[in-house]
Design goal:
This protein is mainly α and 795 residues long. It contains 46 helices and no strands. α8 (132-144) runs antiparallel to α9 (148-161) and α19 (318-332) runs antiparallel to α20 (336-351). The longest helix has 18 residues, at 25-42.
Amino acid sequence: MTTKQNFLKNLGIVVLSTGLVACNGADERKAKYMEEGKQLYQAGDYEKALLAYKNVLQIDPKDWETHFQIAEALSKQGKIENAFREYSTVVAGNENHVMARVRVGQLLLLNRAVDDAEKMAGEALAKEPNNVEALVLLAGVQAAKNNSDGAIMTVERALKQSPDDVPATLMMASIQARLDKVDSAITLLKQAIEKKADNVALRSMLAGLYAKKNQVADAENALADIIKLEPQQLQHYRTLALFQVGTNQVDKAESTLRNAVQTLPDNDTAKSYLVDFLLEKRSPEVAIAELLPMIEQKPEAYELKFKLANIHLAKKEIDKAEAALKEVVDQDKLGPSGITARNKLAALYAMTKRGDESKALIKEVLDNNPRDAEALTLRGQFALGENKTPEAIADFRSVLVDQPNNIGVLKMLAAAHLRNNEEELARENMEKVVAAAPADETARLDLVGLHLKAGHQDQAKQQIEALLKANPQSIKGLEALFKIELSQKHWDKAQEIAKQVQTLSDKDATGFYMSGLGYQVEGKLEASAEAFQKALARKPDAIEPLTEMVKSYLVLKQSDKAIAKLQQIIKQQPDHFIAYNLLGGAYLNEQKFNEAKAAYTKALDIKPDWYSPYRNLALIELAQKNKQGAIDIYKKGIDKSKGALELVDDLARLYHHEGQHEQVLALYEESYKQHPDSPVAINNLASYLSDFSTAPDSLQRAATLAEPLLKTNNPNMLDTVGWIAYKQGNYDKAKEQLLKVLEMLPDSAISNYHLGMIYFKQNDTVKAREYLQKAVDKKAEFDGLNEAKAVLSKL
């Protein structure tokens, strides 16, 4: 906002006087309110000026000059978006209002909408060809389009009309600096300052140009002169201090900030700047030592108490941070700072796993103000964490009523909708995030992912292209585009993107890895292996290109090349457990079991808690018909890996194949104890309880366990919920879930069998036959295949 304010100020926003003729009735009241608004505006009381101007609009809603004056007052308050809307209203309603067009153009140019800004400048100059501000706007447009000659000619026209005009002078100096004529720009600014010694904008640019020429002393003096001109403006002290820090004059910077505190003893922000400086350039202890006397002298300085709490938090001194915030609560009660302190305390309690205390504070805040954004956001986060998704959505939406562009809340709302399987609403909210923060690369890529999930490849591509237009060197953006081109089998385009990434950073492995993946998917395995080699040459410890290179060699039946490369890497990096695991796979591909075992065992010597080598060692035992040996390895792996679900699943399948259902149940029970929040562990136990447990309460327990699975979007887990409902005789619920499953996995044999059985129980023989026939026709083995065939024969 500050930048926009300075921009408008530097362009010389002035109040246009309107000659009012004294009249009777409404016109007389209009004139009175208008004059009152002008006087308040000139006195700097913009809030009251706005009230006066709004009184004019009550009488005449289409008084465009008053709309313009409202926009001017809003811009002075820093409410640039609201000001822009008012200026635009004037442009739409009055084709002759020149200055409204200038203002809209200035703001458009500030936001890089160069063509639209040029249109506004053209419309303004068509009405008033010699309007100085319109000419300066046009020069800014020409400069933005790199038309320096045109910009200079336009500014010269402006200066001919008004030789001492500050915005025109600034624009000319700016153009000269861009053309590397810094000395000429400095001379121009010095001459202007001789005539307008009290102009801060001229001196600010002069300081910037001195800095550009590395004339440190001159730049510093220019900034110091600005402080002398406006000693009550805190921002000037901060600008000088930042310059001094940037030129390694840390002691001078501290002196400048202390001078600000001394000159502005009642300004808590000045004290806050000094504390921030001490925190960054000295130490937290020095900052606290400075801060405590400040707070003691002014106990109601809540901003400083919040600063103290933040420093304690950064030092992980939770108790001290809590005490500082509680002090504000005690002092300010339910005042604004007291409410802020409660919100901060609630966040602190949430961070330190004190949920009940946090919720109690949130309730206090919302009882006092049901629309408090921070409290609603925190409550929504709690709801989201507790899978109370509708409640979270309601809270986030409430925040957005007052803060429609709150990026963080928009992202959380999108996540909540996604969790609630409302993908379209999730996309809509991420689109709002991107519109409000177009430079947020992560948000745009998240939106790309949502479009791809919905099958909207064209929209996904448009988002990536917008990202790359703003930042052509975005590696993540190029990677996303690469994946889309691969999915569309545009091999040449994918390779062009990979080469673009290689050009951006020849020493980085990413571009060559991408190229290898492209060749691999296309079936050019020799080329892929070569690209992966280049990636490894740039990043020898990279896992992905090594893994994919080995994969390509094995498909090419060139195990010897894979083995040679892996042995070379192991020689260079003796603790590379992934290379040992891959080496085991290469030997296993050649059926060299002893060598494979040795490689996998070495991987486990280095990393004994990694599940993958146990799996591979067990497979070797199974390949050699040593079932008990495989079971022993799985058990050891489950113990060492603290219950890796991959090993649990493998061992459960082995037991199941042997009809050892009690062992499977015991295995899944233990897995659930170790991973009670894992949907996979929950699904495994619930499914097996419903199918194979003989305990009388098993079905009810399975149903209770499976409830959280309804919040997933996983078809296998929804199938479990549906099948348990079927076994409980709740056929409507069962059908609802199975229909969802088959939308996602229409070719699933077991889910077609499950839905067929539901229809059979509901006496819908036509649909029962249809789905059971689909299940049988898949030629897949599944539990229930014999029942499917038997019921089909009856039908």
